[in-house]
């Protein structure tokens, strides 16, 4: 009886260890991290598009896919759980010419509790966030950004691509929305209280929300107050048009 127990125990320990590791099959990696509502999800990657959706269930569920076979052969993934924080860090294994020749399209599909703060950084790829109530920081070196039903402050920047942001009803948190090359479309609640500044270096600004103390220094610059004013919402593009409209 004692001998049988000693043989079974190592098997159980191996099974438990395997269950805590990310599941990898071909061009797909899947992992769930502990994350309660009110926590923070952080992702940093040298490449890849990222989509994040708010959910009513706890935990951060991450699925990574690639168009060229085993993504883990080209990138190293570190999944971390801390109190109130779930973190994913990606590093490229191959650098230089070999890394460039073997580059592939990678996509992160993430589901987190709706009340989560996001910090997403990628050096190349589209960002798509929806139904997240926490503050959002999204930064990509190349690709469009789409944020729907944003419930907190939004800081979004892309070096190349259009930006579309829709704030949730009653959201007066403000933020900064910026692209170096592309148009920007922002929808806010007309009943919110915000200070708004919009500028473009090449393009025009179109506004269809009621702004008080409106200052239009030119077709390329707008400064005004929505409702009672409040947190600043800054919108800037170096090359493109800006549209501000009601949700």
SSE inventory with pairings:
Layout: H1 2-19, E1 23-25, E2 28-33, E3 40-45, E4 49-55, E5 60-66, E6 75-82, E7 85-92, H2 96-101, E8 106-113, E9 117-122, E10 127-130, E11 136-140, E12 145-150, E13 154-158, E14 163-167, E15 175-179, E16 184-188, E17 194-200, E18 205-207, E19 212-218, E20 221-226, E21 231-237, E22 242-246
Segments where pLDDT lies below 50 for 5+ residues? 1-20, 97-102
Give the total of domains: 2
Number of helices: 2
Helicity level: under 10%
Q: What structural class do helix, strand and pairing data support? A: mainly beta
Describe the structure.
This protein has 247 residues and is mainly beta. It has helices at residues 2-19, 96-101; strands at 23-25, 28-33, 40-45, 49-55, 60-66, 75-82, 85-92, 106-113, 117-122, 127-130, 136-140, 145-150, 154-158, 163-167, 175-179, 184-188, 194-200, 205-207, 212-218, 221-226, 231-237, 242-246. It folds into 2 domains: 22-124, no CATH class; 144-247, no CATH class. It contains 2 helices and 22 strands. The radius of gyration is 22 Å and the shape is globular. It starts with a helix and ends with a strand.
